[in-house]
Amino acid sequence: MATPTPTLMGVASSTGLNDEPRQLALLIRSVTDYAIYMLDPNGYIRSWNPGGERIKGYRDEEIVGEHFSRFYTPEDIARGEPQRGLETARTQGRFEAEAWRLRKDGTRFRANVVIDPIWHNDELIGYAKITRDVTERYEAQQHLFEAQKALAQSQRLEAIGKLTLGLAHDFNNLLTVIVNSLDLIALHPFASEPRPREWIEAALRATDRGTLLTRQLLAFGRGQTLAPELHDINDLLTRSSELYRRACGPTVGFRFELAGQPLYAQVDAAQFEAAVLNLVVNSRDAMPGGGTIVVRTQRVERAPPDAPEAPVRSFVCVEVIDDGEGMSAEVVERAIEPFFTTKEVGRGSGLGLSQVFGFAKQSGGFATLSSEPGHGTTVSMCLPASEEPSDE
Fold this sequence. Notes:
This protein is 45% helix and 23% strand.
């Protein structure tokens, strides 16, 4: 007679899987994507599974008997987060949160945490704690959020730029009429008298200021005429170093931290100098009590911030760094808009950063602004890198 095939029940009986505690232990030990462990009522670890070792790095003998707060960051411990989690689970039946946690090697990971109380005969005998590593998901969400934010900012500035470009052209036409009229008035015999001559000269100075504003508006709207040529950015900065030092004034220190090798890019030298000078002046004004401005250069490999999915390219980045007052997140959001300024009336047009960002964009690159209150400001102007010219 043929031997009958064992039934599932038979297999369970032969291996002891019909023993519920054994089934549960095998199930928990087979899970490696989740850290599943039990705490006593005071938060000390009583059991540990392979998922806990994989995610947090501790072996059974290293962690069992230790308090679960060792997985928390120092700032969370200072706020009493471990105890709050246990108390919430005890009083409300469950605690769930997402926060940063620590591995054995000190690195941080984003964790989704669930704590459930375990009751027996109305007595709290411990907690079941499940932790899942969601760092990849969290970082993907953050990248998506930053990309959406950068795209929205880019689209808003694009719309402002088109409006600005139209206004700049119209304003320039009006200035042309005014200047031509003043030239004709200057030919009249009465213009040689002292008072009329002063009036005409004052009007011409005002039109010069208007012309400068027009150029800045055109720069932001990417409508200025550029004459790019291949330059070593380090060399351009060095040649204008005295100009930047004078712009800092007597109370602000200034120094270069230039890359050790030439950094070539196709730029309009005059507009590049104007952009760096604008950044230096802005930094100086942010430090009325004195401070230090650093101009740093480096070559980086990255995608533009408003198109993180674009291919990575080489950029020559010029950073202007100050240790001034810094800006709030709200001010940073608006800082590059034309005519937006936090300076007193008469101390700035609000077009300096606009010119820098517009110049960088029209040159094929981009600019970024990073600032926090009390931690100074860094503006990076990144231009497409070019290869070093050959000797031929």
